[in-house]
């Protein structure tokens, strides 16, 4: 990856080529070291790095935006020329005021973790071999991926912003499969790859696969469910897409529109944008160079706020919370680190005190049905179990949910004290397990007419 000096040399040359216009230059470098495995053997070993230079130029309230992977002197010159030419085709945006102004905050730049930096392909292969041996003792095969992600981000603009960050993290996901379409799943995200507990993950996934033999079918209905943290994270991610950014709030396309200060979920549901948790190991500023701030989104079930970038903060007469996405995005600002407040009991204790319910490991292919009602659909996957009198008594055939996320989070009966970090689509979520009443489930069958 590019170091700080090299990054700012590139940004400086881009800005120097732009005369008389307000401009912003962002350089992002992403390295992925990935080992995939299937049928208990390594199938791919990849080490790839991509660098992207983003330019934004403002003139007479017209904004030009361009991205390029060519950071040679000629590539930078061409990108500047193309971006400036683009301004001739743009309509003025009367809502535009300015790019981000500099501030006095001193931010940490080095988020590299030694245990992750040194975790090369041999160590990843050894971890995969250990997981496969543990699953193999039960007659199962393994598949999944060990990911090491490293990134750097440098931001500069003609107003004086200068920010730099580099960091890394790791994740290991594992599916254990049997001959009767039975499977189990487990994963761990950790800022330190060397700290990932492969033994625990393999035993958990293998246990789920073993328990998933000969599942029973349950009738359609509303059930008490216990969602493991990954399942909670999957619901939270879609909820966040729908309502935690200010663009959809401003456009009144969000479930948060007109609801700030109102009750929208249960008393025991609190979620915030929390960029400062060291477990996330996430960059402390956004793609405009603005320091990330913690933001209360929903507190004790009451809608509290959303996240902002500079453009929408100016438009809505507030200040940026440091949640701008890359300049080429059309989505608007969005929180990349979400934290759900924990409860007081362990997930195991919540299961033990459940008279009857369904334990769900995670969902497969959640998607929207009705965004304004936060209605989604998807199926359970890799471990769905019946709980009776505090014990797991049987595997359950995968079931489909057609469920409002906000209604689910309004029916929370218990929240676990233990949380994991669940990563998906570039978002990190610190999530507990949850016991939820009246959760809609229908049996998955070959006939999809019920869906």
Tell me briefly what this model is.
With 451 residues, the chain is α+β, with helices and mostly antiparallel strands.
Task: Note down, in words, how this protein is organized.
The chain is α+β, with helices and mostly antiparallel strands and 451 residues long. It folds into 2 domains: 202 residues, PmbA/TldD superfamily (PmbA/TldD fold), CATH 3.30.2290; 238 residues, no CATH class. Helices cover 22% and strands 39% of the residues. Strands 1, 2, 3, 4, 5, 6 and 7 form a 7-stranded mixed beta sheet that branches. A hairpin with a 2-residue loop joins strand 10 and strand 11. Helix 4 packs parallel to helix 5. The chain is globular, with a radius of gyration of 24 Å. The two termini are 47 Å apart. The C terminus is likely disordered.
SSE layout and pairings?
Layout: H1 4-16, E1 22-38, E2 41-59, E3 62-68, H2 73-86, E4 110-111, H3 114-117, H4 121-136, E5 141-157, E6 162-177, E7 183-190, H5 198-211, E8 221-227, H6 229-243, H7 246-250, E9 271-273, E10 295-299, E11 302-303, H8 310-315, E12 337-340, H9 347-352, E13 356-370, E14 375-388, E15 391-395, E16 399-404, H10 405-410, E17 412-424, E18 427-443
Parallel strand pairs: 4-6, 8-13, 12-18
Antiparallel strand pairs: 1-2, 1-5, 2-3, 5-6, 6-7, 8-18, 9-10, 9-12, 10-11, 13-14, 14-15, 14-16, 16-18, 17-18
Task: Give short descriptive properties of this protein.
single chain, 451 residues, PmbA/TldD fold, 2 domains, 5-stranded mixed β-barrel, 22% helix, 39% strand, globular
């Amino acid at each position: 990856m590019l170091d700080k000096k090299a990054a700012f040399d590139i940004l400086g040359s881009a800005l120097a080529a732009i005369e008389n216009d307000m401009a912003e230059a962002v350089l992002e470098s992403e390295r992925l070291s990935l080992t995939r495995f299937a049928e208990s053997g390594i199938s791919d070993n990849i080490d790839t790095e991509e660098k992207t230079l983003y330019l934004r130029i403002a003139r007479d309230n017209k904004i030009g935006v361009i991205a390029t992977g060519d950071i040679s002197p000629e590539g930078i010159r061409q990108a500047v020329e193309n971006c400036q030419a683009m301004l001739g085709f743009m309509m003025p945006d009367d809502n535009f005021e300015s790019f981000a102004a500099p501030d006095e905050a001193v931010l940490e730049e080095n988020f590299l973790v030694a245990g992750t930096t040194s975790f090369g392909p041999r160590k990843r292969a050894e971890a995969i071999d250990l997981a496969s041996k543990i699953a193999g003792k039960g007659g199962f095969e393994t598949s999944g991926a060990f990911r090491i992600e490293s990134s750097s981000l440098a931001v500069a603009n003609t107003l004086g912003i200068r920010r730099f960050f580099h960091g890394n993290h790791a994740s290991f996901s594992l599916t254990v499969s049997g001959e009767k379409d039975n499977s189990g799943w487990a994963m761990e995200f950790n800022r330190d790859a060397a700290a990932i507990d492969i033994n625990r993950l393999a035993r958990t996934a293998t246990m789920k696969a073993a328990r998933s033999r000969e599942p029973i079918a349950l009738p359609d209905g509303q059930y008490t469910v216990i969602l493991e943290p990954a399942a909670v994270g999957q619901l939270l991610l879609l909820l966040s897409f729908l309502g935690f950014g200010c663009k959809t709030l401003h456009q009144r396309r969000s479930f948060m529109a007109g609801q700030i200060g109102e009750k929208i979920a249960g008393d025991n549901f609190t979620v915030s944008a929390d960029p400062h948790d060291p477990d996330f190991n996430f960059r402390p500023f956004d793609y405009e160079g603005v320091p990330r701030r913690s933001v209360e989104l929903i507190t004790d079930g009451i809608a509290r706020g959303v996240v902002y970038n500079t453009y929408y903060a100016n438009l809505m007469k507030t200040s940026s919370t440091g949640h701008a996405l890359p300049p080429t995005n059309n989505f608007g600002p969005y929180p990349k680190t979400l934290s759900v407040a924990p409860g007081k009991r362990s997930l195991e204790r919540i299961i033990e005190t459940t008279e009857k319910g369904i334990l769900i490991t995670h969902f497969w292919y959640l998607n929207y049905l009705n965004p304004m009602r936060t209605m989604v659909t998807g199926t359970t996957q890799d471990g769905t179990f019946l709980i009776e009198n505090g014990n797991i008594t049987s595997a359950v055939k995968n079931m489909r949910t057609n469920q409002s996320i906000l209604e689910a989070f309004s029916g929370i009966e218990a929240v676990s004290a233990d949380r994991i970090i669940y990563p998906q689509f570039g978002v990190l979520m610190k999530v507990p397990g949850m016991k939820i009443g009246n959760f809609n489930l229908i049996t998955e069958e070959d006939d999809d007419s019920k869906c």
